């Protein structure tokens, strides 16, 4: 090789130096960049349906935690009834991903968990529930720690509690859609027999939830044995423990009036027909069953999904409004029609139903 060619060709050391001649602060360093951006808690995407953490047995895990605190076994059984399994499951998943000890929550561990949950849009009330529940597992009173209290003050400043919706959709749009479902080819008459089983189910769910303004959880707990038919209405009792159940609150009856003015919206008629259609399909005492074989009982999540399907069909933005929005829409509509809030205030403070007025809420919805 000539002397000129040798001079023009840079050696490997020169090439390496040229490639790394960027300023030190611009050089990519996987270790330092990862540590600089690494959050104090597991990233939100790590807790997902694809993640497969160890199976959480809520009952056994909570019993073990109480036994470590020397709580009497007989008392543990009663304490279990007061606790939310879902809360401890969230704490369990966090501990698995961050390699913490589930049974030994400390102040700093609880701070990390609450911060992580807040960053993942947990509400103030949810975080407060987490604090109370996890404090029971600790040998110390970490729930009353000054730093924990300060964290909650900060969360309240950053994300003050606000209503989920500042506006809602018009109930009359849904009612008009439910009317239009019943179209018989023969004689062009509206009849429930013209409905497919899924449409009949959706109609029954929507009418009940609009006429009672209750949660999907309430509908999922309705049992055939607790439905009583009277001359003017259906009365449904919910003896199971639900979210609105309380020590000082009576579990009110659901009144579904018979509405002869518009049979296509008569919730009592629709429910009675639904029960008749499903009597040979069901293997459960629960009122609502799945719309496909093997027709098993369903939970509140399925009912919420059905509600969203109906809302989506009529053009309501389900990315903005959840299935729970039916409560806001129904109560707002009833207030607008009949100033229903006065009746609600009376029943709240006197804790008794006014029997002559027991159908007023449902009628306020249907007579719009």
List the helices and strands and how they pair.
Elements: H1 3-8, H2 12-19, H3 30-37, H4 58-68, H5 73-80, H6 85-98, H7 107-119, H8 124-135, H9 146-158, H10 171-180, H11 197-212, H12 216-220, E1 227-229, E2 233-236, E3 254-257, H13 267-278, H14 300-313, H15 325-338, H16 341-350, H17 360-366
Antiparallel strand pairs: 1-2, 2-3
Helix pairs in contact: 4-5, 7-8, 7-9, 10-11, 11-13, 11-15, 15-17
Biased composition (Basic and acidic residues): 16-28
GO molecular function: DNA binding
GO biological process, one term: DNA integration
Describe it for me?
The protein is mostly helical and about 375 residues long. It has two domains: about 60-160, DNA polymerase, domain 1, CATH 1.10.150; about 165-355, hpI Integrase, Chain A, CATH 1.10.443.10. It is built from 17 helices and three strands. It has a three-stranded antiparallel beta sheet with strand order 1-2-3. Strand 1 and strand 2 form a beta hairpin. The longest helix is centred in the middle third of the chain and has 16 residues, at about 195-210. The protein starts with a helix and ends with a helix. One of its GO terms (molecular function) is DNA binding. Pfam families: Phage_integrase. InterPro entries: DNA_brk_join_enz, Integrase-like_cat_sf, Integrase_catalytic, Integrase_recombinase_N.
Helix fraction, binned, reads: 40-55%
CATH architecture of the largest domain: Orthogonal Bundle
Topology as a string of helices (H) and strands (E)? HHHHHHHHHHHHEEEHHHHH
Average pLDDT value? 73
Show unreliable segments.
Answer: 12-39, 43-53, 184-189, 339-357
* Oligomer category: single chain
Indicate the radius of gyration in whole angstroms: 29 Å
| CATH C-level class of the largest domain | Mainly Alpha
**In DSSP terms, counting alpha (H) and pi (I) runs of 4 or more, how many helices?**
17
